[in-house]
Amino acid sequence: MSKVATRFAPSPTGALHIGGVRTALFNWLYSKNKNGTFHLRIEDTDKERSKDEYKIQIIKSLKWIGIEYEGDEYIQSTKINDHINIANELLKNGHAYECYCSMEEIEEQKKRARQKKLPYIYNRKWRDLTKADAPKDIKPVIRFKSKIEGSAVLRDLVQGNVEIENTTIEDFIILRNDGTPTYNLSATVDDHQMGMSHIIRGDDHKINTFKQMQIYLAMKWELPQFAHIPLIHTIEGKKLSKRDNASTLDDYSKIGIMPDALRNYLLRLGWSFEDKEIFTLDESIQHFNLEGIGKSPSKLDMSRILSMNEHYIKNIDENELYNHLFAYCELYKEKIKSDREEKIKAALLFLKNKAKTLEDIYNNAKYIIFDQVNFNQEDLKLIDDKAKKIISEFNKDIDVLEALNKETLEPVVNNLIKTHETNFKGVGQPLRIVLTGSKFGPGIYDIIMSLGKEEVKRRLNKRF
C-alpha cells in the first residue's frame, strides 16, 4: 500500500455522535495531509436498527462540518456475499470451524464465568470436533480459530506497542447460524477490499483490532496500520454517550454554533500542535499528524466551545457572518426578508458584541428582523408616567434632527436626563423597551441609528 487511504464507518442506528465526528475529522485530515483519499462506509448490516433517516443525518452532518469523502458512500449491506465467501474460505483452509453449541450451553458457560468473576471466553469445545459429532437439530455458527499460544503485538500509531496474550482472544463468531456475518468479519473484509492503509478509530476498538489482525494474517492480506484515539468524556469524566445532551451536531447547530468553530474545537480536543489554538482549514490539513494525538481521554467542555464560537463570530468577515445568520434563521427560526439584509449587515458590528452563538445575534437583531415589536410584558411594567413623558419628549426632540447619529442624539438624551432628574438608564431603558420590546439588548444609540428616523418615529407613535 503506497497511497494513504482512510475511512469513517458509522452505523446508521442513531444520529451521528460528536465522538464519531471527531474520528471522521482525524481520518479526513490525515488523508488530506498525506494527499490520500478518505471514504465513508455505512455499516448498515443491523437491519432492525439501521434507518435511512440516520444515514441521511450522518451524510448531512459531515457536509455541515466540511468533511468531504471520495465518490459515493460504500454501503456494507451490499457486500454481504463477499463477507460470507471469506468466512467459507477461512473454514476451508482450517482457520475457522463450525460450532454446534446450543444457546443453553453458551448461557451456562457465561453464568460460570460470572460466578468466578472472570470475563467470558468461549471454551473452544468444537475447535477439534468433527461434523460427525454434530447434533442434527442445531444449525452451527462459524467461529474463527484464534491463536492460543504466544502473544500478539499491535503497533499502534497513537498508543505505541500494545501486547496481549493470544489466549485472551476467544474463538469469535464470524458467521451467525442464520448465515449473516458479524462485525469483525465484515469490517475486515471491507477494509481490505477498499484498500485501506490506515484504520484510525476510538480506542474502545482495540480488542476488535487484535481479532481483525488475525483474519488479515489468516488470509495473507497486507495489514493496514492502526491508530486508536482516546474517547471523549463528559466534563464529569464519564464516557460520552448518544444519550448525553449536546452529543450530536444538530444539538450544536440548533443553538448557533458555527461549523468552523466546532471543527476547530474538535481538532484541538485531544490533539495539539505547538501552542496554537486557532486553525484555518488549510492550517488544520497542513499541521495534522498522529504524533500530536494525546493518550488520555478528552473532556467535552461546552464553555470552551462557546468561547471558540465567540472568537469566530468576532473575527470573521461580516458578509460571511450574515450568511451564517441567514442560514441559521432559515433552518431554526424564520427566513430573513431580503429588504432587511443591508440593515442587519450594517448593524452586525454591535449585534455580535458579547454574542457567543448565532442565536444570541438573532435575539439581538429581532427588532430589525421583525416590523412588529414583541413586548416582554414584565418589561412593559417599567414604563411608568415619568418614562412615558421621556419617550414623548424624545419623539418630539428628534423631529428637528436631520440625521440620527451619536453626535446629534447625545445632547437630546443629556437634556432629558437633566430635565427629568434621572440618569442614562432612566432615559435609555424606556426607549429600548418601546423600540425593541425588551430592556435587554444593544446600546440605545446603536438601536436608534440602525432603525433610522422614520422607523423610530413609527414605533414611538404606535405605542405612545
What features would you describe in this structure?
The protein has 464 residues and is mainly alpha-helical. 47% of the residues lie in helices and 11% in strands. It has 19 helices and 12 strands. It has helices at 18-33, 52-65, 80-92, 103-115, 183-193, 206-218, 249-254, 259-268, 281-287, 302-315, 318-332, 341-351, 358-369, 377-380, 385-397, 406-419, 424-436, 444-451, 453-463; strands spanning 5-8, 37-42, 74-75, 96-99, 141-144, 151-156, 160-165, 173-175, 198-202, 225-229, 232-233, 298-299. Strands 1-2-3 form a 3-stranded parallel beta sheet, covered by helices on one side. A 3-stranded antiparallel beta sheet has the order 4-5-8. β1, α1 and β2 (37-42) form a beta-alpha-beta unit. α11 (318-332) packs across α12 and α15 packs across α17. The longest helix is centred in the N-terminal third of the chain and has 16 residues, at 18-33.
What key phrases describe this protein's structure?
three-stranded parallel beta sheet; elongated; 11% strand; three-stranded antiparallel beta sheet; mainly alpha
In short, what is this structure?
The protein is mainly alpha-helical and 464 residues long. The chain contains 19 helices and twelve strands.
